[in-house]
Design a protein that fits this description.
Blueprint: H1 33-37, H2 61-68, H3 72-78, E1 97-103, E2 107-114, H4 115-120, E3 143-144, E4 146-149, E5 155-158, H5 160-171, E6 179-182, H6 187-190, E7 199-201, E8 208-210, H7 211-233, E9 242-248, H8 254-266, E10 274-278, H9 279-287, E11 312-318, E12 323-330, E13 336-338, E14 343-345, H10 349-364, H11 366-375, H12 377-391, E15 402-405, H13 408-418, H14 422-426, E16 435-438, E17 441-444, H15 446-468, E18 476-482, H16 489-499, E19 505-507, H17 515-526, E20 530-532, E21 539-545, E22 549-556, H18 557-562, E23 568-569, E24 572-573, E25 579-580, E26 583-584, E27 586-590, E28 595-598, H19 600-611, E29 618-622, H20 624-630, E30 638-640, E31 646-648, H21 649-671, E32 680-686, H22 695-705, E33 713-717, H23 718-728, H24 731-734, E34 745-751, E35 756-765, E36 768-778, H25 783-797, H26 799-808, H27 810-824, E37 835-838, H28 841-852, H29 856-861, E38 869-871, E39 875-878, H30 880-903, E40 912-916, H31 923-935, E41 939-942, H32 949-960
Parallel strand pairs: 1-9, 9-10, 11-18, 13-20, 18-19, 21-32, 32-33, 34-40, 40-41
Antiparallel strand pairs: 1-2, 2-3, 4-5, 4-6, 7-8, 11-12, 12-13, 12-14, 15-17, 16-17, 21-22, 22-23, 22-26, 24-25, 27-28, 27-29, 30-31, 34-35, 35-36, 37-39, 38-39
Helix pairs in contact: 5-12, 7-8, 9-17, 10-11, 10-15, 11-12, 11-13, 15-16, 21-22, 23-32, 25-26, 25-27, 25-30, 26-27, 30-31
């Protein structure tokens, strides 16, 4: 099956806004113009019908499998339906009831759904009657994440009731016998190494309990509340038929996630009846059922109906404690694929609370506030609850003052410690003209409240921008805001103002605070529909299909984490029986599309066929990637063989990938880990300039036709792979990138055998270089040496004779090119003696006498090169300066591009160049280019091609997706 995917694109933004600190989040800062220009899927295009034009133009999968004579296992995989249709096996129907618990930092809640409800409407989800927040009238589908525990380590109350009871105990001076915990969830993420008995301090910070007791009791309270409520609606509930779904942030480490699971088991949930759901994934599954155009309607469609297959969308889950952000891709009508590793930080609603506390401390001082919090916990809890009510209604354009009731205890403690009450203290601060008083209330300017939200909003906006400036991020067309903090009108308007545009929709479903609960229930039933999660990868196979060489390797997660620089590579039979990591990018087939051979074997076989008199016609394709670059974007691209025959590019790519899969299958069998091939994620490399072309889509479709499901495929640009290679080898440290200012440029010069590419990466944060915003390419590979020398021959003999030589003696011609390129590797700048080059003088003599009636030697002597080239019997004696001139054309081009960008301000003197690829190993190239770059102030690091940087970097990318 071929699916018309959204066209991947490399971001070309130059220096980004994300690299600079936002001066004020409330200013009308428009989203980066450049970012908008790079969007490849416009919002209006989301309403178009997806067309598939590959399927009709290619043979059926089963036909290809039989023609290519693949193994039974690979052939059977080719016949699998893509995409998988919904069936009963994708749902957990052993459970008649699913209950999802969203254990949040600030608020917690639950929802439930019976199987019959799910079958009629997946989004028919029930919630308990709205929790009542007591005196503050906080009616909500969630309750406060607070728990009151007595001295016997038993739960007294949970939620709003716990807050009210604790306030009562404080008034009666009995609170010392109890433990009161609030906003304690984030302690798990803060702890780098979790021990089963680690302690949590309560709100007074003077008493502690084991965290496992606190968490398990809290989960147990929610569990029992849910069961009691549901049994009041439907009697005779069989608890063994309940599937519990517990949500956790996706950015949590494995220890924290496992801790929550253990706490749930301790709370009475059977391990086999429990599933952990990552919060942004849950939100993504909920939003799949919401039509894009009417997210606030109550009639749900069966899927993310208005979004075409291939759409990438970002889920921004803003909770009480964290911002959890991930990119998903719709790969068919029901399934989604995780594209980016979840990321985020502690940028939730509690950060606003923390800023409010800092604001009060700036007025009364840390000592006064600490005494108030410890000695008057009831007043403190009521004060923070009062703030919670007010912060929900803060908007960026709000002009009215915010009225907050001041605790009398705070003012009394302030007078006792400083001799002045709260009102008198304010007059001596910078807030004198921004806070007025009326009785026991403070009237606070909205500017102060803006300042509480701005630091949090800035961090969220900057992080989202950084993600959008990555290659995958540049394809995002929808941004879904979910989570309790997404209910904030301030945050909603800021996010919409920064990111809503012609190329992106910002969507906020109704009740975003319970989207996670809704999605967790759907996910619990349909978790198989999450086709791929970055963290689930146990094995990565990388296929680096270069312009003229290919290499393949695998790596397992445990081995990667131990040493990311080691890979298990496939070896190929090279010339003269030598085993090598590289296979030639060649395909040899007959007229009926039957495979003869691929790679090094195809090259050798074709040479023998050329020397024989066989009448059967063959199609021989070599260096076919170059043809793809030379043609305009078109999924129906045609490749031409050595004899000008035409075959669709997708068929050649498919055949070549089949070849790679067979080698991988053999490797797995040899290592005794064949079963892991089914769990492997495949990473394909592509030239950097493919980031803006349909060729990436073509490669992806060919891989699908070769039997790999779309969710198991990732394509990484070669420059991104080299970027990853540098990170795993800690080369950034050697480059002093960590000390370079934001905005510094790292230029990756990947000089292969046939072509060279310069990609310009920008430093976005300390120690990290991400995103290629500029790519240029040219004939800067080892082939430039043979091309340059053949140009010299053309000057001497004319184009017609040289082309005749190529046609009549293809094997000799290829050998000559290889000889020139290999000989050029040993040439040095200080070399004074001439270069001896083995040369087919006899063949050129024959052609010259027929065309010019004189020998090849006489033709050279009559040319402008008579003093630089001397002809012997089977070789040429060539002046070294001629080869130096060929090298100079390449080095001058590279230095010229770097200079151009430096003069335009794009490259600073403290920037860097990473030189890699087969041509970068040539001594002459390094001798000519390094001094010139040093003069420009560009530091250089060399990566030898035998280190396989692209291949190793591709495997690293497969595990990290960074």
């Amino acid at each position: 099956m071929g699916i018309l995917k959204s066209k991947p694109k490399v971001v070309q933004t130059g220096r980004t806004e994300a690299a600079e600190r936002t001066t004020s989040i409330r200013s009308n800062v428009s989203r980066s113009e450049n970012l908008s220009e790079t969007k490849t899927v416009k919002v209006k295009e989301l309403r178009r019908t997806v067309k598939t034009n590959i399927q009709s133009s290619t043979s059926t999968i089963s036909e290809h499998a039989s023609r290519l004579q693949l193994s039974d296992d690979i052939s059977s995989r080719l016949k699998e339906d893509i995409p998988a249709q919904r069936n009963e096996e994708t749902m957990k129907e052993d459970f008649s009831l699913v209950i999802a618990i969203d254990f949040g930092t600030t608020y917690s809640g639950y929802g439930y759904q019976f199987l019959d409800e799910y079958r009629s409407n997946p989004m028919k989800i029930s919630f308990p009657q709205a929790f009542n927040g007591g005196t503050h009238n906080l009616l909500s589908l969630k309750t406060s994440t607070c728990i009151l525990i007595n001295k016997n380590r038993e739960c007294e109350d949970f939620g709003y009731e716990a807050e009210e009871r604790y306030e009562e105990l404080c008034l009666l001076k009995k609170h010392e016998q109890f433990f009161f915990f609030k906003h304690f969830k984030m302690k798990l993420q803060e702890m780098k190494g979790l021990e089963a008995n680690f302690l949590l301090a309560d709100e007074t910070e003077s008493k502690e309990l084991p965290a496992m007791i606190v968490f398990s009791l809290a989960i147990k309270c929610l569990k029992e509340h849910a069961l009691q409520h549901i049994k009041s609606k439907r009697a005779n509930i069989d608890e063994s038929s309940i599937l519990w779904a517990l949500t956790v942030p996706a950015i949590w480490n494995e220890a924290a996630t496992q801790f929550m699971k253990d706490a749930a088991v301790k709370a009475g949930m059977k391990r086999e009846n429990l599933t952990i759901v990552f919060e942004p994934e849950a939100a993504s599954f909920a939003c799949r059922y919401l039509p894009v155009q009417t997210l606030n309607q109550t009639t749900y469609q069966p899927c993310f109906s208005d979004v075409p297959i291939g759409t990438l969308y970002m889920v921004v889950d803003l909770g009480g404690g964290t911002a959890d952000i991930v990119i998903h891709k719709k790969i068919d009508q029901r399934r989604v694929k995780e594209i980016s590793k979840p990321s985020g930080g502690p940028w939730g609603g509690t950060e606003v609370d923390s800023n409010f506390v800092k604001f009060i401390i700036k007025i009364v001082g840390a000592k006064v506030f600490m005494i108030f919090k410890q000695n008057c916990p009831g007043s403190y809890a009521e004060f923070m609850q009062e703030f919670e009510v007010k912060k929900r209604n803060v908007e960026p354009t709000m002009r009215r003052k915010v009225h907050i009731k001041l605790p009398a205890d705070l003012s009394n403690i302030c007078r006792k410690e400083t001799g002045k009450d709260f009102q008198e203290t304010v007059k001596e601060t910078e807030y004198n003209d921004k806070i007025q008083f009326a009785g026991d209330k403070a009237l606070i300017d909205p500017e102060i409240f803006y300042g509480l939200f701005e630091p949090v909003a800035e961090k969220i906006v900057e992080h989202v921008k950084n993600i959008l400036h990555t290659r995958h991020g540049s394809q995002v067309a929808l941004l879904l805001m979910v989570g309790g903090f997404s209910e904030s009108k301030f945050i909603q308007k800021i996010i919409k103002r920064e990111f809503q545009s012609d190329t992106m929709d910002v969507l906020i479903p109704e009740d975003p605070g319970v989207s996670v609960i809704k999605g967790a229930i759907v996910f619990a039933r349909e978790e198989k529909l999450l086709a791929f999660r970055v963290r689930d990868v146990t094995c990565v196979a990388a296929l680096h299909i270069g312009r003229n060489k290919t290499s393949i390797a695998i790596q397992f997660r445990d081995k990667f984490e131990a040493d990311p620089n080691k890979v298990l590579g496939v070896t190929f039979q090279g010339r003269n029986g030598v085993r090598t990591m590289h296979d030639s990018a060649c395909v040899l087939i007959d007229q009926s599309m039957n495979l003869n051979c691929v790679g090094n074997e195809a090259e050798e076989t074709y040479e023998k066929l050329c020397d024989s008199s066989m009448e059967k016609e063959w199609h021989f394709f070599k260096d076919f990637y170059l043809q793809l670059e030379e043609q305009e974007d078109n999924i129906e691209l045609i490749l031409r063989d050595q004899e000008n025959g035409q075959i669709k590019a997708i068929d050649i790519l498919k055949i070549y990938i089949f070849h790679g899969l067979n080698h991988l299958e053999n490797l797995y069998r040899e290592r005794g880990v064949y079963d892991l091939m089914r769990e492997t994620h495949f990473v394909f490399t592509a030239p950097a300039n493919w980031g803006e072309r349909d060729s990436i889509r073509l490669l992806s479709d060919a891989a699908e036709l070769a039997g790999l499901k779309e969710e198991r495929i990732t394509i990484v640009l070669e420059s991104e792979a080299i970027n990853q290679y540098c990170k795993i080898n800690k080369l950034w440290r050697d480059l002093d990138v960590a000390d370079a200012p934001i905005g510094s440029i790292v230029v990756i010069a990947n000089l292969s055998e046939t072509k060279g590419e310069l990609t310009f990466h920008e430093k976005k944060s300390k120690g990290a270089v991400t995103g290629a915003y500029k790519t240029v390419s040219g004939p800067w590979g080892t082939k430039s040496l043979s091309d340059g020398f053949l140009h010299t021959l053309t000057t001497i003999l004319g184009m017609d004779l040289v082309e005749q030589f190529k046609r009549e003696y293809p094997t000799i011609y290829n050998d000559l090119c290889t000889t020139i390129e290999v000989r050029g590797k040993s040439i040095r700048l200080d070399q004074e003696n001439n270069v001896n080059l083995r040369f087919p003088v006899k063949n050129f003599d024959e052609l010259c006498r027929k065309s010019f009636f004189k020998s090849f030697k006489e033709c050279v002597e009559d040319s402008e090169y008579c003093t630089k080239i001397k002809v012997a019997t089977v070789k040429l004696d060539i002046n070294t300066s001629l080869f130096k001139g060929i090298f100079s054309r390449v080095t001058d081009a590279i230095v010229g591009h770097v200079t151009e960008h430096q003069m335009s301000g794009g490259i600073q003197r403290n920037s860097f160049l990473v030189l890699t690829g087969g041509f970068s190993d040539y001594e002459m190239l390094k001798i000519l280019i390094l001094p010139k770059l040093k003069i420009l102030g560009v530091k250089t690091v060399l990566i030898h091609s035998d280190e396989c940087p692209v291949l190793k970097g591709a495997i690293a990318y497969g595990f990290t997706c960074e």
